[in-house]
Amino acid sequence: MKRIIVYIHGKGGNAKEALHYKSLFKKDSVVGLDYKANDPWTAKEEFPSLFDKVTKGYDSVIVIANSIGAYFTMQALGSKKIQKCLFISPIVDMQRVIRGLMNAANVTEEELEEKKTIETSFGETLSIDYLNYVRENPIVWRKETHVLYGENDTFTSFQSMIFFCERVGASLNVMEAGEHYFHTEEQMKVVDEWVKSIIQ
What's the whole-number average pLDDT of the chain? Predict the structure, then answer.
């Protein structure tokens, strides 16, 4: 059986991060999805053809997705044949994330409605179209899913993650003192052991 592992990076990441997982699964093909989308509606247009291209000819597909890459995956690849998904710090409540950014920038929904887009002092662009899209397109997900969550994740609350996992039937593994961005040697060791425990 030919198996491929598709890695989908988060914001600020890139497809080359997939090389890390190649070292864990030398017998499998491992590829990073080289996408450009910055919003879910563009991901819906871009992801399916990229996914079909890299997975063509494989019998089994496993997805490892990080942060907003997991959110885009759930928005764009729900109809694809995927054996299992491993989500690292997935964004599962995008409306909460956007509202958090709005609060940090001291922007009301009325202001955003009026101006349509607002550039923040911390480099994020707020968009009423994005907020409305998120409201109108809730996550619908029916794949075997496993989640790794950092206890100190500032993007997604523990309650939101529990609710998501219960709703979609996902397993949940929590790293004590873990962050949204898994990057230290200790954190990456946890990621690696978790990944290997699920992908046999």
Answer: 96
